[in-house]
UniProtKB/TrEMBL annotation:
Entry similarity comment: Belongs to the UPF0065 (bug) family.
Entry annotated with the keyword Signal: yes
Signal peptide limits: 1-35
Identification of the protein by name: Tripartite-type tricarboxylate transporter, receptor component TctC
Keyword Signal listed: yes
InterPro entries: BUG, Bug_dom1, TAT_signal
SUPFAM superfamilies documented for this protein: Periplasmic binding protein-like II (SSF53850)
Taxonomic superkingdom: Bacteria
Key words of the record: Signal
Pfam families according to UniProt: TctC
Amino acid sequence: MNNSPTHALRRRFAVAFCAAALLPAVAVFASAAHAASYPDRPIKLVVPWSPGGATDVIARVIGQHLGQALGQPVVVDNRPGAGGNIGTAAFVREKADGYTLLMGTSSTNAVNPSLYSRLPFDPVKDFEPVIHIATVPNILVVPAASPFKTLDDVIRAAKAAPGKINYGSAGSGSSQHLAGSMLVKATGLQLIHVPYKGSGPAAADLMAGHLDLMIDTGSMPHIKSGTLRALAVAAPRRLPTLPNVPTFAEQGIKGFEASAWYGIMAPAGTPAPIVQRLNTEINAILKTPEVAQRLEDFGAVVNGGTPQAFKAFAASEIERYRQIVRDSGAVID
């Protein structure tokens, strides 16, 4: 038996090497075991906006059905403020274990990186995209009593009286502001931007006739009630819920597409089996007639797809909005 110091050293090295070699396998086994038992307690779905808005409504629709599919409650946690940045910043500090999710949006995850000079999170590195839920196209709307019956009416009036036609928004850098800025660039019109502290007050003033128009994502209930008139949809094709409302492209403004998108995200580093489980369940939920109809009634176009596709889409949107925000002139310190 060789008990020399050299032999003992070699033996300790061999044991250490084997242990190190086993570490990846142990980690994979632990991750798989964790995913197999997932979830065994309630899941929190962070909405970085106030209750009642589009993000909140969509989150509650998905959360209710996801909870039923997983056998654990999905609790919506509203954390509004700073254009969605407060709730999103809190979310990225959560554990990457699948028990805290985020309803990411085009505002927080695509626009804000260019809109805010300082951002409390990295729009790419801090997130694990799970699934692209839906896209809600902007719709050009005017008050029911407005003399404008078509997009061409708006364009002719704006050309005849430069700087007289105004449009409202939820604030500087909001989806309504950026869509209005895109319309100005596409047509050369001189429109006056009137920012509000939220889309609710802006919509109220629009319906009261204090504003001429908005290019909004949350107008569907008012369109259906008859208090607002829809003139154009900023999407590649007409919406099934508004089959008689033409797109901007159909009315001569090619390539005019503006929308808000929504998708489930997990913190960076969330185990792949958990991400895939969530993706599979939510894809199935989006295909149910009940959920698909509720989202379509809201004016949404249902998406779905793989985590990889959503990751690529979200990254491309950051680049796309960089130029849009620059053209709008909106910057928030």
